[in-house]
Each structure stands twice: as C-alpha cells, then as structure tokens.
Amino acid sequence: MNQQLSNFMSSNVQTVKDSQSVQEAAALMSEYNIGSLPVVNESGQMVGIITDRDITLRTTAQGENAQTPVSQVMTAQQIVHATPNMDAHQAAQLMAQQQIRRLPVVENGQIVGMVALGDLAVDNQLDNEAEEALSSISTPSAPQK
C-alpha cells in the first residue's frame, strides 16, 4: 500500500483569509465542525494557521474584539506542514514531535490538504505511530504567548 500522505489527507480544506475576522473564522469552524483553519493571503498562499485554541487564548482571554483580523491571532511563524508525497510514518512522527493533531499539506505554497491524527490511526500499519503521536501530543507543554 502506498503510504504517501496524499492517500490519507482530506483534500476539501476550508481556509480563511488573513484579513477576515476571528468571528468569521470561528463561524467557519462551527459550520464545518473543525478545530483549525489554514490561513491564506489574497493570492491563496498559506501564511498561517488559526485554531479554536488561538481564538480562545489570543482573542477572548486577551479581551480582544470579535472583529480582530485573523492575521493578529494566527500562528504565522514556523508553520509545521507536510507535502502530499511525504511518507505517512514521517508525518505521524512530525505530529508527535510538534505536539499537533492536524497537519496542513502544502504544495508550491498552496494548501492542498489536511491530515488529522485520526486519519492516520484508521490504517492498521500506522496504528503504532498514531498512538505514539497521541501520547506525545498529550504530554503537557508550556503555553505559548
């Protein structure tokens, strides 16, 4: 079986523009029942990611307005991502190392997919990697500011 991420990722990925408000981002997350959105600029290049946790800690907890632009609360530096041809085992290890549950899949700067830990866990050959990743992800870390 081919173990490339392209075989595991969801390719119908919802995104949000960096100029949209956190309220719009939260509404998209609610509508699609997802916890993160890749952030793109006007030309469709991925420039960040915003999570429901980002909205809670960087907007609500800081007393920011719901109309705050996504660009002010997204994670923009050191965005962890994969490529469609990356090996799924490597992706699981990357997710464990970075303590993330969702991994954007990017090709030529454009978001082409998203893979979640659960996507990898359903494959029997990746069961152990997914379990190890979840264990690493669940290890407490210091909060980011």
UniProtKB/TrEMBL annotation:
Keyword annotations from UniProtKB, A to Z: CBS domain
InterPro entries reported in the protein's UniProt record: CBS_dom (IPR000644), CBS_dom_sf (IPR046342), Diverse_CBS-Domain (IPR051257)
The keyword Mitochondrion appears for this protein: no
Entry keyword Phosphoprotein: no
Top-level lineage group: Bacteria
Domain CBS: residue ranges: 9-67, 74-131
Pfam family, one: CBS
Identification of the protein by name: CBS domain-containing protein
